[in-house]
Amino acid sequence: MGRVAVVTDSMAYIEGNKTGITVLPFTIQIGEKRYRDGIDITREEFFQALERDYASVSVLPPEVEQFQRVYTQLSARTDQILSIHVSGKLSHALANAQRASRNVLGRAEIVVLDSLSSSLGLGILATHAARMAAQGARLDEIVRAMRKIIAHLYMVFYTADLESLQRNRYLTASQALLGSLLNIKPILFLEDGRLMALEKVRTHEKAVEKLYEFVAEFSDVKQAAILQRHLTPNQETKMLLARLEATFSSVSFPIIQYDPVLASHLGPAATGVVVYEEA
């Protein structure tokens, strides 16, 4: 019996060393051309394509056959596999992984876990799982630890891109039209893996205030990041950073680009915060 193998997908934001983690790339389709996320196309190139023509861009999860091939390869050296993926309510990657795991029954014990998250949240889970696996933890021990972390991952966004929200049925056509006329910016929370528009504000300043208030509720922030389309801070991000750094002097708030799955739901103009609270 080898150590637990950890599998995730390219929606995970993983800084630095990915040792012990098998990452299956999503496919980014632009028109008739297909690219492997993070291999054939960069995040910046993805956003540029999305801004040019939203309708021509599709974000496709790894197929069942890709998962099955990876599981079969890994089962040659271990009988324990943890496959943890972007929220099943945002993408079909989880469902494809579950189907593939059933096709290789008997070769290895495979646990397919819904992160209920994405981006840095998913990356935190995959990294922590790989670290535990390297230390010799059993599959059931790692799964218990993952469930505990999942319960302490939080994400919130705001966006002025009401067209994208309407396209993805977060707003009705009448809500999007009225929102545009009133300069409304919905605040969306990731609740149980699903994006939900729960509040609305009318200025960028008030939206930034909402993001700050969201983070300020946590007393023990272990890790956090600001999510946006660009890697350089805009005026609103600078405002948010200044307030967060004044309140959480010991916490770093890097700016990272959010992933294609989130972008397919929110569009390319969102700003958000992800928080991992000490479990």
In the CATH hierarchy, what is the architecture of the largest domain at level 2? 2-Layer Sandwich
Helix share, percent? 25-40%
Number of separate structural domains: 2
- Oligomerization: single chain
Specify the number of helices: 10
Whole-number radius of gyration? 19 Å
Q: How is the biggest beta sheet arranged?
A: 6 strands, mixed
Mean pLDDT: 92
Supply the CATH class of the largest domain: Alpha Beta
**CA(first)-CA(last) distance:** 30 Å
Named CATH topology of the largest domain: Hypothetical Protein Tm841, Chain: A,domain 3
Number of strands: 13
Strand order of the largest sheet: 10-9-8-13-11-12
Using the alpha-carbon principal axes, give the shape.
globular
Query: Which spans of ≥5 residues are poorly predicted at pLDDT below 50?
Result: none
- Helix-strand category: alpha/beta
- Portion in beta strands: 25-35%
User: How do the SSEs run, as a string of H and E?
Assistant: EEEEHEHEHEHHEHHEEHEHEHE
Brief characterization of the structure:
It contains 10 helices and 13 strands. The protein has helices spanning 43-52, 64-74, 93-103, 119-134, 139-150, 162-167, 173-181, 204-216, 235-247, 260-266; strands at residues 5-9, 21-24, 27-30, 33-36, 57-60, 80-85, 109-114, 153-158, 185-191, 194-201, 221-228, 255-257, 271-277.
